[in-house]
Amino acid sequence: MLDASRRAGVSIATRCGGKAACFMCKVTVKPGSELQPISDEERRKLAGLDEKGIRLSCQMRVTGRVEVELPPDPLRAAIARQLARQKEQDDELW
Ligand code: FES
To answer: Whose alpha carbon is nearest atom 2 of ligand 1?
Structure first.
């Protein structure tokens, strides 16, 4: 899945280069997506998240049509959290 996303020009953040170590490539798989069954190793690493439809895009093997939801960009997510904290502090002052 990670390779396919890159070929399609969709960026999924990674740090481990696809070795199932960084967990940054998690995606949420939509129902009806065509994938090979999850491996025992990926299932163990996800520790139950796979039951919520979350998979590691570097470990998923696509067999047909697939629809996934990408995680938010880590930098944008950090900025959004900081802005939300700042707004809470500003609201407390006024
Ligand atoms: S790329 Fe690091 S866990 Fe998938």
So the answer is: 22
Atom of ligand 1 nearest to the CA of 12: 1
Supply the range of the domain harboring residue 16: 2-93
91 CA from centroid of ligand 1 (Å): 39
What total number of domains does the chain contain?
A: 1
Report the separation in Å between the CA atom of 9 and the middle of ligand 1, taken as the mean of its atom positions.
18
Listed in sequence order, the DSSP H helices in the chain are 2-7, 40-46, 74-93
Domain CATH for 82: 3.10.20.30
Task: Give the tens place of pLDDT for each residue, 43-92.
Answer: 999 999 999 999 999 999 999 999 999 977 778 888 989 999 999 999 98
Q: Say if residues 24 and 74 touch (Cβ distance below 8 Å).
A: yes
